[in-house]
Amino acid sequence: MDSSVFHPDFKAKPFWWEAIAMGEDDPPAELPPKADVVIVGGGLTGLNCAIELGRGGTRAVVLDAEPLGFGASTRNGGGVSGGNNVGKGLSGAKGRQSPEEMRDWLRAIMGDASEGLAHIEALVQRENIQCFYERTGRFVGAWTPKHYDGMAAKIDTLNEFANADASMLPRARQREEMASDYYYGGMLVNRTGKIHPGLYHRGLMQAAQRCGATLLGRTKAGALTRTATGWRVETSRGPIEAGEVVIATNGYTGSLTPDLRRRLIPVASHIIATEELDPELARSLIPNQRTLADSRRILTYYRMSHDNKRVIFGGRARFTQVTPEVSAPILHAMMLARWPQLKGVRVTHAWTGNVAFAFDYLPHMGVTQKGLHYAMACNGAGVAMLSYLGAEVGKKLLGKSNKLPVFDGRDFPTRAFYTGNPWMLPMVGSWYRFRDWLDRKAA
């Protein structure tokens, strides 16, 4: 591996953690004997649910096996989707054969998904969360001319159903958005934003506490047993009785809930942060400060840091968990392919987090056959989607939902013999890389 890409002060942890005391500022709470609702998972889903419950007068206890926010909630790239990424596979549209039925389906899922952005914007303002949120928009680069044409064919749908404020940008104008000719033009989506994930999560923790929630990090949930009045939840600190239980574990869903685990495909996403750049160079890379992504199967996503001094570059360096010594040089090479002018710039941080895909590429919320509430399957758009669905679960428990999202109660598919171990991912990754190479070569 190319060790020259690593800065002498390199850290194998998220850059976002520099702004927060991960694991050191967990509230010093005691496990109460009873709770109205126990939420398993202290990330964006669980905290949004706890906030909504607290605003409605119901107090929640939030449990996390690790320090609160240790998972993908503080490890993501900080992009906030406006609903334009939902339902890529569209297998949920099975049986809707007519154009009218397909349009109704798209209108429903994209319209509800677009609520995620509105939810975050209202929440950040209402709770005064200082997390560098900006609605800056996104540029999605076309990997090939054919991909450009495919994007162009979707523009009207995105604008009509997701209010995306999207338009196409030809290759001749690409440098208006990024200092590179790497793509064949692409799509601008103005109704998206970016955020500092660490500060957003810490703001959610504070808001949840103000709403009366008890937050317990390093408290692992164990056996879940039905009782006459609800649930008994065994934990590493002892048992707790609860009226309801919410599972908010997404890409870290494990043996506690095997029925949910077999419906999720956890995929590792890897990210690097560069050292601070020359200010003029930093300003030139993304003139309009958007988030960037592309149409490859082996996805990349990137942006400038909140202070516009570093590049934050993420993607599928591998489809499984690997060490920074493996992932960082791969991502660094991907970054240089897009911006050769960054040659010699070193990596100060590298980290990994799990995203969770569903077999139908759709988010899901609902209630299991055993009676557990859940919201999960972000499919790579978790900041907006899981924040929104977590709040919607809270409203549902309070009985205050005027209209449940279309993602509630839908069939949550799995596959025969699949138990939650994504053993097939390395093969899928190899196939995707070959297809990307073939498409580009043909272009």
Automatic annotation (TrEMBL):
Q: The FAD dependent oxidoreductase domain covers which part of the protein? A: 36-392
Cellular component per GO, a single term: cytoplasm
Region spans: Disordered: 73-97
Care to name a GO molecular-function term for this sequence?
oxidoreductase activity
- Compositional bias (Gly residues) at which positions? 76-92
Q: Sorted alphabetically, which keywords does the UniProt record give?
A: Oxidoreductase
Please report a single Pfam family linked to this protein.
DAO
Keyword Lipid biosynthesis part of the UniProt annotation:
no
Protein name, UniProt field: FAD-binding oxidoreductase
Annotated source species? Neoroseomonas oryzicola
